[in-house]
Amino acid sequence: MSKLLVEERNLVIPGQEVATGIDYLPSVGTAREGENIIATRVGLLTLKGRVLKVIPLRGKYIPKVGDTVIGRISDVGMSGWRVNIGWAFVASLRLAEASERFIPRDADLTNYFDVGEYVACKITRTTVSRYIDVTAKGPGLRKLDTGRIIKCDSSKVPRIIGKKGSMISMLKEASDCRIMVGQNGIVWISGQDSDKELLVEKTIRLIEERSHEHGLTDVVSKYLEDNKQNG
Amino acid sequence: MAKAFKRNDGRKVDEMRPMEAKLGVVKSAEGSAMFKAGKTIAIAAVRGPREVVPAHKQRADRGLLRCTYDLLSFSVNDRKRPGPSRRSSEIGMVIENALLPAMDLSDWPYTSVDLYVYITQADAGTRCAGINAAALALADAGIPMKELVSAVAVGKVDGQVIVDIDKHEEDQGEFPTDIPVAMMPNSGKVTLLQLDGKITKDELNSALKLAEKSCKEIQEVQKQAIRAKYVSKEESK
To answer: Nearest residue on chain A to B61, judged by CA atoms?
Structure first.
């Protein structure tokens, strides 16, 4: 008889039995141990149909094809760039993927992206995990030359964005800043003055700290409301 | 009849020292934890998964777990000369081997998870406290694990099998026997078993039974520490 042993959206701990029986299927953060399904990571349990998954509360960003990330140029080569996206290995940004415009053969590549600059890019290919290709061509993908960069835990990104972008659009509206959240947890904020940028940063820290709580949107909207009046 | 066995600090033979565990003690690390058993305090921090340097140690089929263990120079009565020693590198290897059976790093080839275990205060049972802290730090870092590994040192002092030996007991009697045990208590798998001294087969069996019971208690403390990090905020609202 298959049974769920832990309620959905509850905290699970590695080794904890979350379901028994063969009707449930293990997915990310869970594994089958004989009859039972156990959690293998600390996180919140979710159930989609018959598939059990653990949403991790902490952990390093793992690159996935199609993710939009914000990376830091770590090296300029002969025919491309190396981009640090927060994973164990750097991604490569090839010449053909760098710009919509034509880049001449003998161009100085530092004119496009220089070491230390941040770029919004999209992951196009990964091998088992060592080689990662990114592109900077596409809507919204470009060099980020103004504003500030803050680093969050990548597992908090879904909460920062919110359901269908509800949280992030609330933030944008309240602060009048341009915000871009990379799936790797790097956030770019650009506003008219630094006070507004700081408000965004503080709000994101609040979201990060209380990301596992219910009713977070209300907490954040109240926080923004309070700080707007003060400012 | 022999005099009834009495422990130095008045504990029962199957009673452990008071334990305490806390997550997130090293803010800059991906995961970290402190584990305290009586006067022994261990701090563990996890970095990674990250690129393996030197590159010739990279493995194409799996990630590595690399553990550094050391006593801080002020952790023992006589100052410990800082830096790695034969003892510390062996215990690092032992901790690594005790944790690996619970882990699966095959998803992250070419990388390593670097684990740093440091003892800030030593009162025997440091490798066990180190393993307990390390298991928590790995969980905190989001490294997949089948179960939290728990460890305790059992032993024989003056002919009596006891659990969680402290420094006083380690030096007590003529031939004290020290048996550090690490296990995954739910599945009952032993991942570390060392023996220093002499013991009979029956005594070893009863010592291992004690260790299993104690490891279950330790795992509860570990679980509680993880819950405390996330649930307390919600309840205090």
So the answer is: A128
